[in-house]
Amino acid sequence: MSLSPKKLWTIIQNETRAAQKKESVLKRFFDELIQSPVDLAAGLTALLSWKLSDAFLPTSALKKIIAKILKQTPSLIEATARDLKAVCDRDPAARDYHRPFLYFKGFHALQVYRLSHWLWQHSQTELALYFQSRSSQLFGVDIHPAAKIGQGILIDHATGVVIGETAVVEDDVSILHEVTLGGTGKETGDRHPKIRRGVLIGAGAKILGNIEVGEGAKVAAGSVVLKPVAPHSTVAGVPAKVVGKTNEPQPSLAMVQEW
Predict the structure, then answer these.
(1) Residue 220: what pLDDT?
(2) Could you tell me the pTM of the whole model?
(3) Which in 64, 91, 136, 243 has the greatest CB count within 10 A?
């Protein structure tokens, strides 16, 4: 079941009202990032402008940049809502909505990518790369602004995730920590993997080169994938080989990590 950004923000605000009663020392934190913003777009603006701020781009400047992007492209907030719901649906550590929104760096890095991708598409490439660099510094996640990433994405734990310039990640994909979607050397042009809908990529997997991982496939933890993966197949090993078929139409949703 989908949740509209409006409904989702109401839930998050209600959750943090209850949290404030337990952790009064965080009252200002909850007020400024959750209770004061009028909607999900305003909340995301407040959160990311605080996270990304530094000596060169203070919070006030970032708020203007982020608010402008989200106002011009409402579909980005729809993507944010789908990403947040994906976290809560698939990660057993996410027992509510406000905690992933406030604390989960995979979710944060993905939303910064969405802003940097917008900037890249609108020829603001220097600022896009600045956002990418700050995100990498803060979250340990390196996503090139030119990569193409769909909605309903889970980047779980996220530390060490690398997604290259010409990579494609379709909707409803789940990626665990230390995953690389990279190239194979110094080649230029279209050189990164294409991950189709519903794929589950286990922790530490490396998928290298302009190869396709078909819809509904599984890539086992620690695998090194150098050849295309057929839809609804499971691959494991170094180098990765087919070890079976998947039992679920979209393994990314079931999150069953048995290979």
Answers:
(1) 97
(2) 0.96
(3) 91
